[in-house]
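hey so u asked for the seq, here:
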Amino acid sequence: MNIALAGFGLGRTDIVGTTGAVVDGDRIAIALQGAAEQIAYVDRTYNVLGYKTIPNVEDIHGIALDGTDLICVSTGGNLILKENQGICSLPSEFDAFGLDVEHINDICWANDRLVASKFGASRKRGLRDGCVYDVKSGEVLFDGLNQPHSVFFYDNNIYVVDSLTGSLIEFREGSAFGPKSILKINGYARGLYITDRLILIGSSRRRTTSRKSNLATNEMLLSAEHDRRALQRPGIHVYDRLKKHSIFVDVEQMSDEVYQIIELT
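ran it, structure tokens below
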């Protein structure tokens, strides 16, 4: 298995982090966080083809394609923006009102519908109301999540990782059973890719400071020191659906966090 981390090797000291990535023909678009929110375009051997600065986007997260147009999540502004001769706002009932009360993260296409993950204001014990919703209509497809991130559509199911609990949630519209947890990792789950044979889930080192505000955040209290070390290992869990067996690919030497996983064929 070949694994590459978005942004690794770009040689940019001004990059705070890299988030969404999407394959666009023979090139890859990678969202860059830094002094200016940008998209890096690289070829399949990671040679930089060019950069595009994205106006009106603060704290860029998930990205997707609509034909040749790029759709970006502005997590800092809690907006989803589409590029078409500039940037315009897609209809959404989830715009922020000055506070980080929505925190939209990731987007993907589910057939002809654009869906997104978001979580809301803090509740007791640091939990946050999270859901997956239809971007255009605002319809909540399912909720009850804590810090949902990566959304993925496969075999007519919508999948999302519930990052705080490490759970992979599966949801099929019209099912009488609703969303269900099908896998769980020991770590902060973010980054997801699914094939007929494999499920890949990213695991990130938990932050002790906010990357954007540099403010201290409360670290989760764990029951044992070995559990703490396990949660601090960044990498990718690879689950073989046929053999019902998993391996862990450690990426600690390259990065503290995994945001998105893409397939290059």
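The longest helix spans residues 225-231. Helices lie at 225-231.
lmk if thats what u needed
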